[in-house]
Amino acid sequence: MRKPILAGNWKMFKTVSQALSYVEHLDGLLADIPNQSQADVVICAPATALYAVHNQAQGTPIQLGAQNVHQAEEGAYTGETSAIMLKDAGAKYVIIGHSERRQYFGETDESVNAKVQQALKHGLLPIVCVGEDLDQRNQGVTNTLVESQVRAAFNAVSADDVARSVVAYEPIWAIGTGMTATAQDANAVCTHIRSVLSDMYGQDKANLVRIQYGGSVKPDNIAELMAQSDIDGALVGGASLDPGTFASLVRNA
Ligand code: 13P
Fold first, then answer.
1. List of the chain residues with pLDDT < 70
2. In angstroms, what is the span from residue 235 Cα to ligand 1's centroid?
3. What is the DSSP string of 25-47?
4. Rounded to the nearest whole angstrom, what is the distance from the C-alpha of residue 83 to the centroid of ligand 1?
5. ipTM of this model?
6. From the CB of 113, is ligand 1 less than 6 Å away?
């Protein structure tokens, strides 16, 4: 019932020309994958490549996402990008509250919530990232922490808007480390996220929200993750940078 969503987060990689040749290559590879259209395939490109990728991806199954958005409508915020601008450049999705942004750029639960509201106001679908670090996991507070992140991110967001949103559970210790959560552990947290959403908005709405796992997802572990009851897709960093690897991941999902 929930359409799987496989999203590549390129982070701060790829020039415009590299992005264009990637999209052309990936499109060709996706064409050979049976049932590929049963999943949403999204590339979250750097801001400088969004418009070019949007044009290149027209008529292909590749959808476009951004990696961050500012919470204000417009204004004197040097260096920032508004939801209106991202939408205008062709983005459909936007990653919000990635742990790298929380860690290096001072994003908080409050700014994540403001960004989620701003994105939805302008028709961008948020991919809201939550997840614990290794200390928190070892202390056994993963569910508590993730619950507070989810509650804060969707504070004052309508049930219909939440149903259109995507949540990405990304344990920080699994990002870029080659250490993946076991599929069962990842699913347990995703199930908890859905139960929190159910408590906030009711089970019917919670059942519509797509929940991704992220953190060292590769072509050889995607199938087991996708087989879990509450994992509806993946947010993929390193393994999304090469079109052949990302296509293999889509094929195996
Ligand atoms: P890796 O797939 O490189 O671990 O990165 C995960 C991630 O941060 C996706 O947003």
1. none
2. 7
3. HHHHHHTTSTTGGGSEEEEE--G
4. 23
5. 0.99
6. no
